[in-house]
Structures are given as structure tokens and as C-alpha cells.
From TrEMBL:
Keyword Phosphoprotein: yes
Pfam families: Response_reg (PF00072)
Residues with 4-aspartylphosphate modification: 69
Protein name listed in UniProt: Response regulator
Record's keyword annotation contains Phosphoprotein: yes
Organism taxonomic ancestry: Bacteria, Pseudomonadati, Deferribacterota, Deferribacteres, Deferribacterales
Domain Response regulatory: 8-136
SUPFAM superfamilies according to UniProt: CheY-like (SSF52172)
Organism per entry: Flexistipes sinusarabici
Keyword terms of this UniProt record: Phosphoprotein
BP terms from Gene Ontology: phosphorelay signal transduction system
Record-linked InterPro entries: CheY-like_superfamily, Sig_transdc_resp-reg_receiver, TCS_response_regulator
């Protein structure tokens, strides 16, 4: 990543294998030019709200989509979602939960907090790659954004 202000996709994933699979799926479909992977919810919030090591980032520089795992160290995915959707400046960023959690309570709470989509990670590698590819194509190329 050459310029932190050009991030289009923010992947918040603590499992390095899942993060790598997502990156490979995006690269395979030429969608991985401006991707940042962070490993915990605290770093995600720092990036989104230009704090900590990201305090030099332009405040108006926002990702086009956030792919968010729920089970994260430091700050969990639901809290990241809650803070993103509670802020006037960031609530329009599409957030897609990409998680292994099939818990009904996680699904319901995510939608109550304003998630744009909730996807349970497929166990099969090819299906995972396909799901990430479809997410990238939809949110980066087809979806119309207000900014």
C-alpha cells in the first residue's frame, strides 16, 4: 500500500489465513490495488477515525467498503460496527460482516447496528474466494456511493 489515503477496502481480520485468502480473491479479480488489512478492532477504529498511528491520514479519506470479522482481539467487530454506524461522517461507509459466526444473536445485532450485509465465511476455499470476489465486484463496481 503506497498511500494510506487511497484505501478502498479495509479488511478487519485477525486470522492471517482468512485475510490472505480474501486478498488472493481480490487480486485474482484485479480488485486489490488499495487494500489495507488490520488485525484487530482497535486498529480498525484508529484507521477509520484517524487516531493513533493513522493520525496523519486525511480525515476525509474513507474506504469504499469495510469487510469486518466479528470475533476480534481488543475491540470486537460489533463494537467497531457500532462506532462506525453511530458517527455522522462514517455511517455511510458500507460494512459487510464476513465471519464464521452463525449465531442468530450476532446476525440480529449486526443488522440492528446498521450492517449492510452479513456473510458467513464458507469453509470451502473456492467458495470463500468466490464470495469475496462477488463482494468486491458488487461494492466497488456496481454499488453507487453518495461520496
Amino acid at each position: 500500500m503506497e498511500n494510506i489515503n487511497d484505501v478502498e477496502i479495509l479488511i478487519v481480520e485477525d486470522n492471517p489465513n482468512d485475510a490472505e485468502m480474501a486478498l488472493r480473491a481480490l487480486k485474482k479479480n484485479n480488485l486489490a490495488n488499495n487494500v489495507l488489512v488490520v488485525e484487530d478492532g482497535e486498529e480498525a477504529l484508529d484507521f477509520i477515525f484517524t487516531k493513533g498511528k493513522y493520525s496523519g491520514k486525511e480525515k476525509d479519506s474513507r474506504p469504499k467498503i469495510i469487510l469486518l470479522d466479528l470475533k476480534l482481539p481488543k475491540v470486537d467487530g460489533l463494537e467497531v460496527l457500532r462506532e462506525v454506524k453511530a458517527d455522522e461522517e462514517t455511517k455511510i461507509i458500507p460494512v459487510v460482516i464476513l465471519t464464521s459466526s452463525k449465531e442468530e444473536s450476532d446476525l440480529v445485532e449486526s443488522y440492528k447496528l446498521g450492517v449492510n450485509s452479513y456473510i458467513v465465511k464458507p469453509v470451502d476455499f473456492d467458495k470463500f474466494v468466490s464470495a469475496v470476489r462477488d463482494l468486491g465486484l458488487y461494492w466497488l463496481l456496481l454499488n453507487q456511493r453518495p461520496y
